[in-house]
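Hi U.,

Before I forget, here's the chain from the pilot set. I'm dumping it here mostly so it's searchable later in email.
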Amino acid sequence: MSEARTSSHAAPMVQVRGLKMHFPTYSGLLRRRSGAVKAVDGVSFDIPAGETLGLVGESGCGKSTCGRAMLRLYEPTAGQVIINGQDVTAVQPEALRQLRPAMQMVFQDPQASLNPRMTVASIIGEPLIEHTKLSKPEQRERIEELLDQVGLNRNFANRYPHEFSGGQRQRIGIARALALNPKFIVCDEPIAALDVSIQAQVVNLLEGLQQRLGLTYLFISHDLSMVRHIANRVAVMYLGRIVELADRDALYNKPLHPYAQALLSAVPEPDPAVESRRQRIVLTGDVPSPSNPPPGCAFSTRCAQANAHCRSVAPALTEVEPGRLVACHLYSKEFAQQPAPVPSLTAD
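Structure:
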């Protein structure tokens, strides 16, 4: 890893404070508002410049919504997002448009995010037309330079997206995101729609670009093995909230939150001897509805160690070790004075 990625003293490029994204629900004949789906419900974290924060969790926990709300592709319900010193949640639409070059996104499905009627040159060149005053020859030169950066042949510039493989289409999406020299990129499950043989190539490309260009990433994924490879720190999300945030190695070696323990117990070990000795934590029940979350801790309905206090009082995300935050009453002083219940572990 580069020195920039591992520095713990770098000023935060991204600061998220109390971010909420609630989608209203309507019912009845008159379609009156009856509630809200709390897709993101008070998320806070920092990402230092040049680092990668991995955001993991089950499908439907709010990972992608969080990334989109940070870039104001969704209008946040509440909270503050500061990117490169600018509060993107407080600016007017025209001022937000001026900030767009500094923050970009790589989408999950390249086939859906690329216009099938536009050539590669038009797709990559569109941001240059909208946000720069480059001449046609300068635009063409920049497009060819971007194709070189992502490992595509310059001669492919006049082809259409359907003429490329999934991995090549994702490279086109990455080239488009790099067109305006951004500082921060949200990678929304960029490898989920790709073959396993291509996933490592795309992740290695993202790592190489980060080291050469000094990029800062929010890497959203449900592939815990790939997150371990690329991220410096990892945030575990459950039902719209972050339940644990820690350095990558600390989290993978010893997860503290019961949900993080269950999630990481499902990651297979490459060593057969280690894998044969492991016990997998199998959770019972389903994730509660984000429109009607349970009182207290959101994970209390599936947690084998939950008690009455967990089911009535929501734990705050607090620092239990230097640089390590956990939202769990198990690590509070009040709980430490009580005998801890024995977790139920089921061998898979």
